[in-house]
Write a structure and sequence with these properties.
By secondary structure, the chain is α+β, with helices and mostly antiparallel strands. The protein has helices at about 1-25, 45-60; strands at about 35, 65-80, 80-95, 120-130, 135-145. Strands 1-2-3-4-5 form a 5-stranded antiparallel sheet. Strand 2 (about 65-80) and strand 3 form a beta hairpin.
């Protein structure tokens, strides 16, 4: 729980810093409020990606949990909070939904190559309002990743 509070505090500080950076870099590069690239290790991004995976798992009828396996592109936009716009891959894990491992996907290994291995290419938009402790998945569209299909 303490880790989540730290992430929320860090997110709030990042939002304030981003406002100052956008305000000071308005000389032709990016307009205030426009999406900008964000590091794949950004704590707010990682929180947003885990939120999207949780959203997918709640909507899916699959017997196994899925978790993020790669982040292909990530942007952040300042809009009454932070909106993360992300292209990512989610992959089936060895953890079954009925085993109640929903809280900590880091304990769930990915399915090995074979019949149960499955990966989806997803586009998501997640809105984070750190000072309210609010994270909402606005959009999540996933399709089969053709590079991982086995015939």
């Amino acid at each position: 729980m303490m880790g989540l509070k730290m992430l929320l505090l860090l997110g709030s500080l990042l939002a304030v810093l981003e406002v100052r950076l956008v305000a000071s870099s308005h000389h032709g590069r990016s307009m205030p409020g426009s999406p900008s690239n964000v590091s794949r290790t950004d704590p707010g991004l990682l929180l947003a990606v885990l939120s999207a995976a949780g959203f997918y798992n709640r909507q899916s009828n699959d017997a196994f949990l899925f978790k993020p396996s790669a982040i292909d592109r990530a942007q952040r936009q300042l809009v009454k909070g932070l909106k993360y716009i992300v292209d990512l891959e989610i992959s089936r894990t060895v953890c079954r939904k009925r085993d109640d491992n929903h809280d900590n996907l880091s304990n769930c290994d990915l399915q090995p190559e074979g019949r149960l291995h499955q990966t989806f290419q997803c586009h998501t938009e997640v809105w984070v309002v750190p000072w309210q402790g609010q994270t909402t998945t606005l959009k999540l569209n996933c399709k089969t990743n053709l590079h991982h299909l086995r015939l």
